[in-house]
Amino acid sequence: MLLFNTKKYTYWEYWPSFMFYVPVVPYAFYLALKSRSFGFFSAVNPCMEGSGHGLESKYDTVQLLPSKYKPKTIFIKIGTETSTILPKLVSNNIKFPLIIKPNIGFRGLLVKKINSEKELIQYINKYNSINLIAQELITYKNECGIFYYKIPGEKTGTITSITLKKYLTVIGNGKSTILELIQEDARAKIYIELISEINKDKLHSVPLQDEEIVLNIIGNHSKGTQFINGNNLIDKDLTSFFDELSNSIEGWNFGRVDIKFNNFEELKKGINLKIIEINGIISEPTHIYDASKGTYFDALKAIKNHWKLIYRIGTKNKRLKKANFTNLSYLITLYFRYKKYLKKVSDLSANLNSR
Fold first, then answer.
1. Cα–Cα–Cα angle for 233, 237, 316, nearest 5°?
2. Residues 283, 306: Cα–Cα separation, whole Å
3. Can you tell me whether residue 278 is helix, strand or coil?
4. Closest residue by Cα to residue 144 from 259, 234, 289
5. Quick one: pLDDT band at residue 196, thresholds 50, 70, 90?
6. Is residue 173 part of a domain?
7. Given this model, what pLDDT does residue 194 score?
8. Does 157 reside within a domain?
9. Does residue 207 form part of some domain?
10. Which of 14, 116, 237, 295 could form a disulfide with 268 if both were Cys (CB 3.0 to 4.6 A apart)?
11. Environment class of 326 (CB within 10 Å of its CB; exposed 0-12, middle 13-18, buried 19+)
C-alpha cells in the first residue's frame, strides 16, 4: 500500500486534474481579456451545447456522427421504468454485454460493462437519479483518442494529438492466480481495488503460461488504461480522414474523438471503426499523460497551446457571425451547475466503489 501511495504522488501522470489546469488559468484569463469576453470558448463548436463544455449530452453528441461511425445507443431518462428499457435494446439491436454510462460524464465515472439483464436492472435502479445512455459494446481490439482542430474558413485541419490506449493486462505464468499477478504488476496494483471488483469472479483462477488477461476494457486513464503517445502516426491520410469527418459534422471545429478500431491503416481509410465519443473544448490531448515521452511541464505547454487554439477558433467564428460568446451570468450559472453535477456523480461513484 505504501508503494501505491508513493506512486500516486510522485508519478505526475496520476496527479489530480486541477494540477494540469490551475497553472494555465492565468493564460486563459489573458485570452478572455484579449477577446473582451469570458465566454470566448463558447463559439468554438456551434453544434454542441457550450461548444462541449462538459455538461453537454453524450447522447446528443453521438447523434452528430455519420451513421457508419455511430455506435448503437439509447437514452435512458431519469425515472424510466426498467421494463421499458429491454424492448428498446432489442429494437436497436443492442445485445449483452453492453456499456452503460451517465449521459453527462467525466473521466470514466460510472462507466461500466454490463453482462446481463440482471446487472442492467441493478445498475439503473442504483443510478436512476441521473440520465444514462446504454451503448453497444464495440469489439474492435484497439482504441485511441485523436485530437483535431480546423480554423473556420480553412479547407484543411490539423491533428495535434494521437493517444493509443493499452488496456490494463497481466500475463499468466501458469502458477499464479490473477490476484497474485495483479499484486505483482507495478501498474495493475495501483488500481487493485477497482480491477478486483471488476474481476471478482475470476481472481483466484490461474491463467496459462503467457496467457494475456485483460482486466478492464474501459479506455480511461482513471480505470488503469495506459495512454501512449502516438503522435508519430500523424500523416496526410489520417488528416484527410478527419477533414472529411469535420465536414460531415457542421459546426464541429475542435476536440478529441475516441475511436475503437481494428488496425491503424484501416482507420486512416475510415473502415472497420466506431467513434464511441466526440468531445469539445473540455477534452484533452491525452498523449500528454505518457510520462515516458514528456514532462509535466510539456503537458502544461500542450494544454496552454490548445487554449490558444480555442481563442483563435472562437474569435474567428464570432467574426464570421457563425456563433456568439456567452455572457458572464451564464458562465457563473454553468460553473455552479458543473460543480453540483460533478459532486453528484462523484458521490454515486464512491457509493459504487464502496459496495
1. 95
2. 10
3. strand
4. 259
5. confident
6. yes
7. 81
8. no
9. yes
10. 237
11. buried
Question: What's the CA gap between 64 and 75, in Å, rounded?
Answer: 15
* Parent domain of 204: 169-216
pLDDT value for 1: 36
Q: Share the mean pLDDT of the chain.
A: 91
Alpha-carbon gap, residue 281 to 252, rounded angstroms: 10
Q: How many residues can be counted in the chain?
A: 355
Cα 96 to Cα 36, 122, 228, 306: the distances in Å are 51, 15, 30, 38
In our burial notation (b when 16+ CB lie closer than 10 A, e otherwise), range 146-175 reads bbbbbbbeeeebebbbbbbbebbbbebeee
Please count the structural domains in the chain: 1
Q: Quote the pLDDT of residue 283.
A: 92
**Helix ranges (DSSP H) in 140-177:** none
In a domain, residue 189? The reply is yes
Residues in contact with 238: Cβ distance below 8 Å, sequence separation at least 6, in sequence order: 146, 159, 267, 268
490506449: which residue's cell? 165
Q: Do you find a cis peptide bond into 285, omega within 30 degrees of 0?
A: no
Handedness of CA 118, 219, 344, 332 (dihedral sign): negative
Distance of CA 163 to the CA centre of its chain: 11
The sign of the torsion formed by the CA atoms of 248, 254, 258, 262 equals: positive
Q: What is the pLDDT of residues 213-247, one digit of tens each?
A: 988 887 787 778 899 999 999 999 999 999 999 99
Separation of alpha carbons 124 and 135, rounded Å: 14
Residue 156 pairs in a beta bridge with none
274 residue type, one letter: K
The cell for 227 is: 495512454
DSSP per-residue letters across 11-26: SGGGS-THHHHGGGHH
